[in-house]
């Protein structure tokens, strides 16, 4: 359907008349920079980068694209890990880099209204200045954008207690594939007038509409935060502790795990003096009032000890940040071990976490690759990460890809899913039909057509 | 499109072969019972009532209906307040009355899997037996079904702190208008594999699919609950207190208001000794650990006093239930005042609550009707309720309908919506296009077609 040639003078002229000459980029260096996002092994060149300023410009760009049958791929900071912003079929990458305005923080309504290019961290900071709090905190929060967070329904470290991006999106303005601008939802926490387009656009990876503004809910900032660290002989014991924590009525803000390989990598990177022989660690934390946090940490500590923890340390606010930083550095720490790092994402029901990690280890062994696994134990959301010595070793890359295929199928077999929070993109589309079945796959296509009849919005991804 | 004649012998024979003779009902007494739900002024006779037992039977019924172009209207307990289960175009009312099984409570996964006919209260009770808690609690929770709650995205008294039904639906099995059975989502709190069909079906009022099973999230039950009661000279002062509570970082489980008319009605009904002259009351409550609840109530008490409350009383667990029961009896208390009670639903941004109530009072005066207003102050969600002396006075009914039309338009003008939690149904469809605009209304129709190409699922409602 789509061409990979240079854009015609006609198209370029039309695009330039919408956003200005300097905001249509076609120089090879720029196209190269947008040829991939954070997904290894996926590289595809767009034909142009356009940098619009507002929703009417985006509507115009989409109309031009629809007229000329050109893909439009919306992109925030390009931190996506499943090639969701990859220009697989060429076309125009539409970046929200110029749309970084926080339009409004409304404390009495507990909400913020922002342009899509605002970073997660910038929103969190602006909310913090009003004593408020934006809970979703994906790993890339310092650079990732709210538009991208919403397009992928980003998660983070606080999912168990606070939910994911979906839970905070109140209203969206979006440009459909028809070039129409719709405003869904609004400023209200309760609004059932019509189908829930706000949540449908959330996680649709730019295939149904391009988000041009978002209204998101904020919460009062918790008074304090506390964190604890528990070591276990193996992940099975850590998994028992997770079950025990939940069974004792604690729904903590943080409940993260690292396997031994991740611990080694993190300790070599950040010199935290982690336990030298434990098979797994659990990082747990909570927030709220002082007494509440203390009570919660004490209960989690006891649940860990009763589940056979080797040791448990509890820290106050001062220790919380370094510990969470250690967890956040797992990916860069692992990346140092090789030349190519493939970070993946799968979820299983919480009680099957340890079983899933054991199955991952077995799959890695059989395919003769190294996979380290960490993730959000409270959500059953794992990030198996393969580190390969060379980015050129195509044979090893193929083994890794076969291993991940088995991992996704295993997740499905255990009642889980192929992605908890990273998304489907181009990378996981081959597994989506296995997860959803043929009827639902066909339904996704019909929904896609309802929003984007010409199929110009991020083709080759969800709904394809 | 649809016929209002009796069903043909052929159709009846087919339906009977699916569910058994005794579960296809066409006797006039039964049709009469299903000719209306809890919405006054809407009466429409279905041609048959069918009582299926499982998803494959429902799929068969939908296929028969599609073949014969007959509407299928799914129905739980019929507590809907916007004629969402009304057979406006005849057809088959499909009741979930026989599907009342709680399939599973899985404490380690914090979830329940239920058939759609299970009542909200039955689920809450079953969860409670495991120390767990299902937060959504619509006014009709003792009789309303989970299927109906999901179909309408029901709210309740705990929306501010806990969110609404949407926040608790993890996975659904549903029969599409094609007769296909799809399973969306699953048992996971984080799953972004595909468009968010789970949330799209939630609130779709049976127009996109018929829910045959639901997996819902549960939370650990809070340790304790506390409630307080504050009286104010007028609703403006109560509104200031709401803003002040939020500004002090409290996001309480309960924050309900009653205007003077509601207070009079409730006191006459339940003899609670409410303040005799206050213009408005605020019922506030919170749950959690003992210290946490005490701290929260103290802060809310102070926020009320600082906002000019006439008096504030704080109660413990013992007082919480009677106070919440008083709030819950507002509707029956108001209903005693006349022969026809029209309970409505609108939302505005929280800071505009008092302004909205003042506008409602003005609208009621101008149309010479009595409207009492209560609702969820924390959510900006109001229930203006009109009580008419006679159900036969068509002239007064018309005045009430004109008044509500103005109320919905005023809510939209204040940045609000035509329904916060009751839904659109047949009753509010005329206002939906005003809220959504023509592009989004057309988009809703296209989405409807993607799920239900023959248009047999609850026609004349959302997506029509």
Automatic annotation (TrEMBL), chains A, B:
Transmembrane annotation, as ranges: none
Cofactor requirements of the protein: FAD
FAD-binding PCMH-type domain span: 42-221
Alphabetical list of Pfam families matching this protein: FAD-oxidase_C, FAD_binding_4
Keywords: FAD, Flavoprotein, Oxidoreductase
Name of the molecule in the record: Glycolate oxidase subunit GlcD
Gene: glcD
């Amino acid at each position: 359907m789509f061409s990979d040639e240079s854009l015609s003078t006609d198209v370029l002229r039309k695009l330039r008349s919408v956003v200005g000459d300097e905001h249509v980029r076609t120089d090879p260096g720029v196209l190269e920079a947008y040829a991939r996002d954070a997904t290894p092994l996926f590289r595809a060149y767009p034909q142009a980068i356009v940098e619009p300023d507002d929703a009417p410009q985006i509507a115009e760009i989409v109309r031009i694209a629809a007229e000329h049958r050109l893909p439009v791929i919306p992109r925030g900071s390009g931190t996506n890990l499943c090639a969701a912003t990859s220009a697989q079929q060429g076309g125009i990458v539409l970046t929200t880099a110029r749309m970084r305005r926080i339009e409004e923080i409304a404390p009495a309504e507990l909400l913020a209204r922002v342009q899509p290019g605002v970073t997660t961290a910038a929103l969190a900071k602006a909310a913090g200045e009003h004593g408020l709090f934006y809970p979703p905190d994906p790993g890339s929060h310092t650079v990732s954008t709210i538009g991208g967070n919403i397009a992928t329904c980003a998660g983070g470290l606080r999912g168990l207690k606070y939910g994911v991006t979906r839970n905070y999106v109140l209203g969206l303005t979006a440009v459909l594939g028809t070039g129409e601008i719709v405003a869904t939802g609004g400023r209200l926490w309760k609004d059932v007038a019509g189908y829930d387009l706000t949540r449908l656009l959330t996680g649709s990876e730019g295939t149904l509409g391009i988000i041009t503004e978002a209204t998101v809910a904020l919460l009062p900032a918790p008074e304090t935060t506390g964190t604890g660290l528990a070591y276990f002989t193996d992940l099975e014991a850590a998994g028992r502790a997770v079950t025990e924590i939940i069974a004792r009525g604690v729904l903590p803000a943080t409940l993260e795990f690292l396997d031994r390989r991740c611990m080694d990598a993190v300790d070599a990177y950040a010199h935290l003096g982690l336990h030298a022989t434990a098979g797994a660690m659990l990082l747990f934390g909570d927030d709220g009032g002082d007494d509440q946090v203390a009570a919660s940490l004490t209960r989690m500590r006891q649940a860990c000890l009763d589940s056979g923890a080797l040791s448990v340390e509890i820290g106050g606010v001062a220790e919380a940040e370094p510990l969470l930083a250690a967890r956040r550095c797992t990916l860069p720490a692992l990346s140092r071990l090789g030349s190519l790092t493939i970070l993946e994402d799968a979820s299983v029901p919480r009680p099957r976490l340890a079983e899933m990690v054991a199955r991952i280890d077995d799959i890695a062994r059989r395919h003769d690759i190294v996979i380290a696994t960490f993730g959000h134990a409270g959500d059953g959301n794992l990030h198996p990460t393969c580190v390969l010595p060379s980015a050129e070793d195509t044979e090893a890359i193929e083994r890794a890809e076969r291993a991940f295929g088995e991992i996704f199928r295993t997740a499905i077999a255990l009642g889980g899913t192929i992605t908890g929070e990273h998304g489907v993109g181009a990378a996981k589309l081959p597994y989506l039909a296995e997860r959803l079945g043929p009827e639902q796959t066909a339904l996704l296509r019909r929904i896609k057509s309802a929003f984007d009849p010409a199929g110009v919005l991020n083709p080759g991804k969800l709904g394809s």
